[in-house]
């Protein structure tokens, strides 16, 4: 076997793997993923068990600190988080500056980056363990507030301040759906569903956004800048933006009369840029274990909330037809986690353009864990090489003669 570390400083040896389809960028002890067998584990625990038994904040602790918390550790973690949920009042001026219809993901990446201005201690390139931990707690705590305020802004409603009596997820739902004028009770079914969705999105090893967080952090950028970059990476429809794209696609199919065969044919047509959103995955070539959990959760939640969503029927039909079609079978294209997540978010009352922001809220512990691991491993600055294919030598022609 080749010892890659020995090749590190050698010049003239460059492997080319566009899109990093087969190239590892790091060693990681956070998430295990077997794409062939459809296995996903956080720190050794199967995703199925965590989604069933844990709360989101327990999973966040597991990802970031490496072990499931004891009851006391969880209480202390929750207490620390609740002490930092407020964001600086001046941050509200940023909200005022955005047009009310601007996309929540653009707002989120800007607002998270702006947090660095209010918490300048995070800018120190080498923080002590305690300082690093404080940055992590603040990042996690303030994200839920920022996300819910983005939602309130889109409605033109006043923001709701966090209440420390609530746990992380309940507080988030309270700030999102609560009113200043009356007491609200958040339905336990909704709290449970939100916990599950956030857990399923919490980490996914070296995906586009996590790799972005690591590479930005590797230049010693602060946690807010690194996470903001991850949010930008997540925004694209080939990554986190898929959850919004799925619902928009399903709506279109519904309006078009629900003819799934027609849309499957479009997805197969190589002259048509249309792709079946929510299908396919870079790593899962058998099935996405998160999609199985979410499909079942979707059925349960819609039933418990008494919602009959026509779009769910179209999604199921589309899945059924695609899974039998040789085009999808040969290319190993299966529904991914985002094929059903949007249907649940919609049932919980979120508008479509908030879906990717909710993905970001769920993915945050993963980004933080990846950023922390990268720092603890003292990884060198990320700096890919290239194969230059441009002109080798050109004679400069003065502008008047070009
Ligand atoms: N619909 C139709 N055809 C597809 C789809 C799709 N959703 N996905 C892949 N294909 C086809 C490609 O056209 C290609 O066909 P070809 O071999 O005839 O040229 C083949 O399957 C392989 O596709 P690639 O794009 O090379 O696969 P890659 O691993 O690079 O991409 C990706 C994976 C980006 C997820 C892709 O499957 C896709 O665009 N899916 C739709 C968007 C989506 O759902 N993204 C969410 C991903 S999960 C997440 O981020 C949480």
From TrEMBL:
The answer on whether this UniProt entry bears the keyword Metal-binding reads: no
Q: Which InterPro entries does the entry link to?
A: Citrate_synth-like_lrg_a-sub (IPR016142), Citrate_synth-like_sm_a-sub (IPR016143), Citrate_synthase (IPR002020), Citrate_synthase_AS (IPR019810), Citrate_synthase_bac-typ (IPR024176), Citrate_synthase_sf (IPR036969), Citrate_synthase_typ-I (IPR010953)
Q: Which reaction does it catalyse?
A: oxaloacetate + acetyl-CoA + H2O = citrate + CoA + H(+)
- Taxonomically, the superkingdom here is Bacteria
Under which pathway is this protein filed?
Answer: Carbohydrate metabolism; tricarboxylic acid cycle; isocitrate from oxaloacetate: step 1/2
Any one GO BP annotation for this protein: tricarboxylic acid cycle
Name any GO cellular component annotation. Answer: cytoplasm
Note one Pfam family from the annotation: Citrate_synt
Tagged with keyword Transferase: yes
Single GO MF descriptor: citrate synthase activity
Keywords per UniProt = Transferase, Tricarboxylic acid cycle
Query: Catalytic residues per the record?
Result: 281, 338
CDD domains (alphabetical): EcCS_like (cd06114)
Family statement drawn from the similarity comment of this UniProt entry: Belongs to the citrate synthase family.
This chain belongs to which protein, by name?
Citrate synthase
- Native source organism of the sequence: Mucilaginibacter gossypiicola
């Amino acid at each position: 076997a080749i010892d890659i570390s020995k090749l590190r400083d050698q010049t003239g040896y460059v492997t080319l793997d566009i899109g990093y389809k087969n190239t590892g960028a790091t060693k990681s002890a956070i998430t295990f993923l077997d794409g062939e067998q459809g296995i996903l584990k956080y720190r050794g625990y199967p995703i199925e068990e965590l989604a069933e038994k844990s709360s989101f904040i327990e999973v966040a602790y597991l990802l970031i600190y490496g072990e499931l918390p004891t009851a006391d550790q969880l209480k202390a973690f929750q207490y620390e988080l609740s002490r930092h949920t407020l964001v600086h009042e001046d941050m509200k001026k940023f909200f005022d500056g955005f047009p009310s219809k601007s996309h929540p993901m653009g707002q989120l990446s800007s607002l998270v980056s702006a947090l660095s201005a209010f918490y300048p201690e995070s800018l120190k390139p080498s923080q002590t363990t305690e300082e690093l931990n404080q940055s992590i707690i603040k990042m996690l705590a303030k994200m839920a507030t920022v996300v819910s305020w983005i939602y309130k802004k889109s409605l033109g409603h006043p923001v709701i301040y966090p209440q420390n009596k609530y746990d992380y997820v309940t507080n988030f739902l309270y700030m999102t759906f609560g009113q200043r004028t009356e007491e609200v009770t958040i339905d336990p079914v909704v709290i449970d569903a939100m916990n599950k969705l956030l857990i399923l999105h919490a980490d996914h090893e070296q995906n586009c956004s996590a790799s972005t967080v690591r590479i930005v952090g590797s230049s010693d950028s602060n946690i807010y800048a690194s996470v903001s970059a991850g949010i930008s990476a997540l925004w694209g429809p080939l990554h986190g933006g898929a959850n919004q794209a799925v619902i928009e696609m399903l709506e279109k199919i519904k309006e078009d009369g629900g003819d799934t065969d027609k849309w499957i044919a479009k997805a197969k047509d190589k002259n048509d840029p249309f792709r079946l959103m929510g299908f396919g995955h870079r790593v899962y070539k058998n099935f996405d274990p998160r999609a199985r959990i979410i499909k079942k959760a979707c059925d349960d939640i819609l039933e418990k909330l008494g919602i009959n969503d026509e779009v769910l029927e179209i999604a199921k039909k589309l899945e059924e037809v695609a899974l039998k079609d040789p085009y999808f079978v040969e290319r190993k294209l299966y529904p991914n986690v985002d094929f059903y997540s949007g249907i649940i978010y919609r049932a919980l009352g979120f508008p479509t353009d908030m879906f990717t922001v909710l993905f970001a809220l769920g993915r945050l512990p993963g980004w933080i864990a990846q950023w922390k691991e990268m720092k603890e491993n003292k990884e060198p600055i990320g700096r890919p090489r290239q194969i230059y294919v441009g002109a080798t030598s050109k004679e400069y022609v003065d502008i008047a003669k070009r």
